[in-house]
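Submission sheet (multi-component)
Chains listed below:
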Amino acid sequence: MKRQLCNDIYWVGALEWSKEFFHGHELSIRHGTSYNSYFIDDEKKVLIDLVRCSQHEDLFRHIEEHVKIEDLDILIINHAEPDHASSLPEILKRNPKLEIYVSRGGNISVTRHTPGVKQLNVVKTGDSINIGKRTLKFFEAQMLHWPDTMFTYCPEEKILFSADAFGQHFASSERFADEIDNKGLWYEAEKYFANILTLYSPQILRKIEEFQKLNWEVGIIAPAHGVCWRKNPAQIIEKYVEWASGKTSDSAVIIFDTIWGGTEKMARAIGRGLEENGISIKIFAAGAADLNNVMTEILSCKAIIVGCPTLNNGLMPTLMPFLEELRGLRFKNKIGAAFGTYGWSGECVKRIEEGLSNAQIELAADGFKCQFNPHEEDLQKCEELGREIAAKIKAG
Ligand code: FEO
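Outcome: structure written.
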C-alpha cells in the first residue's frame, strides 16, 4: 500500500473496507471508509489526527513503521468527533507527554470526549508552530463540519490537512484521487457534502472565502476521510462553493410510496410531463431507495415532487424520514409539489405540502390527488403537472 504523501510525510491511518453505515445508521456508505492520520517526520515527530478507537492498532502499527509511539512529540487534533479522536486515550496510555494542539472549539470537544485529558494547546487562525525544517499553520474552519474543525497547513510542502472537509467515505489502497476511478470518488464527495454539510452552506461559503484570502498555496489537500486531492486540488474547493451556493440544474427528483400502484402511476405520469419538456428526472420509491442517495440527487436538482397515498388520515410512514431529512438539511433554491391517491379522507397532499414548506421548499404548483385508482384523465392531469413544473424549472 502506498502511504507516502511527500518526503517525510506519511499516511498512517486505518481503513474499513466493508463498513456500510456511518453516524449510527444516518449515512450509508457503499465504498467503505478510511480514518486518515498523517505523520510528519521532522525534528519534532508530529501526528495529525487519529483514528476511530476500534482501529487504533492499525494506527499504531503504521506509526511504528517510522517512529515509536513513545517518541512522538506533537498531536494535532483538527476535529474531535470520535471517528478521529476516540483513540486519544489509547495513545496517551503509551505517550502521556504528547503535546496536543486543538482549536478553541476543540478545547471543548476534546475535553468532553476524553475526560482528564491535559496539556491542550489552543490555537486560532494565523497561529503557527515550528517543527524543525517545517512550519505548521492553523485555520479555524468552523462548520466544516463542526465548530471545533480546523485546518492545519504545511507551507514548505504546500499540504493542507483539512479534517472532514473535502473528504469522501472511500476505502482505497491508493492515496491520491488521480490514482483511482474518479466517478465513484466524486459521487462520494458529493454525497458527503449533500448529507453532512448542506445545512452549513452559508458558513461554508464565508469560510472558504476567508481561507482563500490567506493565499496559502495548496498542492495537496489531505482530508480525514478518503483519498487526497493532488491533481488540481482547487477543483474540490470549487465544487464545495458550487454545492454550497445552491446552484441547480434542469432536473427533478420524484419520490413516492404506493400501496396498490396508483401513486406510482401518477409519479411516472408526472415524470413524463417533465421529460417531454427537457427536464432530467430521477424517480425513487420511498422506503426502498437509499435516503442518502436521494439527498445526493436533490443537492443539485431544482424540483422535488413528492407523492403518497393517504394512510390513517396522514402519510405513509416511509415518507417521514425523507421529509425530516429534507427539513434538517435546508437545501436552497428548490421548488416542490405534492401528489397522491386516497380512498376516503385524502389528507396526503396537504401533509406533504406542510412537509415541503417546513423544509423551506417553495410550492410551485397546486398539489394533485385522485381517489383510488388514477384513470386516464387523472394521469393526463399528472402529465400536465409535470409540464407546469418543467416550465417553472426553465424559468429559473
Ligand atoms: Fe469524520 Fe466529523 O468526523
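Remark: The chain has two domains: 4-245, 252-390.
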